Amino acid sequence: MTTMTPGTPGTPGTPGTTMADSSATTAFRERIARVDAEAEARAAERQHAKGKSTARERITALLDEDTFLEIGRYTGSGAGERARPSGVVTGFGQIDGRQIAVYSQDFSVSGGALGAVEGDKIVRLLDDALRLRIPVVGLIDSGGAKIQEGVGALRQYGRIFNRTCAASGLVPQISVILGPCAGGAVYSPALTDFVIATREASHMFVTGPDVVRAVTGERISAEDLGGADIHGSVSGVVHYVAEDETDALGQVRTLLAYLPSSSEQPAPSYVYEEADRAQDEATAAGVGALVPSSTRQAYDVAEVVSCLVDHGELVQVQEDFAPNVVIGFACFEGRPVGVVANQPLHDAGTLDVDASEKLARFVRFCDAFGLPVVTFVDVPGYRPGAEQEHAGIIRRGAKVINAYATATVPLVTVVLRKAYGGAYIVMGSKAIGADLNFCWPGAEIAVLGAAGAVGIIHRRDLKKVRDEQGEEAAAVEQERLVEEYTASVINPDKAVAIGEIDAVIAPEDTRTVIVDSLAALADKRDARRLPFKKHDNGPL
């Protein structure tokens, strides 16, 4: 056996030194401090001049204080003399004490372009999130793929898409667009559950304005082609348009407050005091005063929902897209639910192609992550016309049917004023699979409204009166027939009699009935033997 003496080759160090103050450690500290300071200074100079934060500043603003653990900071370069940051920061942290995975693209490093190193880091993070069953938040600010890496860069996008699809429906995924997002890169956020974009700085498009002009001759600005407002109101790609980065990151925290960390876990629940209950019940008692009795008069259903839920807090999703339907998150006695409601303020609350896809995907998201769905119905039907038929209202409207019919979470439905035809069926009816269905007094539930039904059923009789006695007499007879039809057919009695409606409830009792219904359905389980992941939440 060889005896080694201090200070000779092969020894851990010179006499009196420790790893804490060894020359290697000291050199490492100095080198990394210099590299990090230079990188952050360069990033701040470039980003702050545009009114944008650096990649690391964004992570700090998003996460609970001092919880970020960065992974792979010097992947691709090593931590030696050639140490340099890559175009993406990846790691783990906490939001309200719950663990998440986060990556933030660094536009100050080669425009945040994605290459082999950046792709490997994001893929590894997604793999870790899948293993750990934690949400993923991506902060997007990138010029696209590294052109010099060619197909290798494109390969990385494919790998990211693959992992994003694998995580869909298993862990919540949120993308925040804080700068450019173009080409194949746009599909990564589009595959996630929610996309948040800043109003001024973010752009998303498959082909940019220059390419559009070169190929089609059309001249269009980046804002008009793929700005946040366009995607928030026209395409529906963006679920929330934020005023600035602070607003965007705050919305991430708000959304996650309603969601479980994975499909295997329950959503978070919150302490609900007796004082809260008394206040919310007092507010809910006045809900009937918000809704006009005339089915032709508009009102804001978001106000109605806010009147019924805990603390009046409704977090809407896709508020500016297909506004004829309202979707969002709320709580009843401290427990999160998904809310779906027709919005009479916009197009009378009719269903069209956009509204159908909007609410169908939301119901599927809630089902994937175990959130009960409470549906408020006030719908005159589907929007008629050749435009809707040609846009695929049959195919796209059927997605709503599939979403409700396959959902296994508690489903509670309240018909506020009216529900006609196929729109009644798809909006969480008992026949399609809802658990408990209620309506307010006088709710109109039928194939058609009274005027339309009378016009078809009594067409010949009315024509005869018109021919023999004139228009005035025909109008009087039509009014009499409408009243008769309303009293005998479209009131809720028939729906109650055949079990389509479980009870007629007074408006002031709505919150209590919903709370009691959710309590009764709390232990609802899917009779099928399924893995923890029921299905993905791909874009519909």
From TrEMBL:
Location of the region described as Disordered in the Swiss-Prot/TrEMBL record: 1-22
Keyword Ligase: yes
CoA carboxyltransferase N-terminal domain ranges (all copies): 18-271
UniProt entry tagged with the keyword Ligase: yes
Entry's Gene Ontology cellular component terms: acetyl-CoA carboxylase complex
GO molecular function: acetyl-CoA carboxylase activity; propionyl-CoA carboxylase activity
Keyword terms: Ligase
PANTHER family: PROPIONYL-COA CARBOXYLASE BETA CHAIN (PTHR43842), PROPIONYL-COA CARBOXYLASE BETA CHAIN, MITOCHONDRIAL (PTHR43842:SF2)
Name this polypeptide is given: Probable propionyl-CoA carboxylase beta chain 5
Native species: Actinomyces howellii
Lineage summary: Bacteria, Bacillati, Actinomycetota, Actinomycetes, Actinomycetales
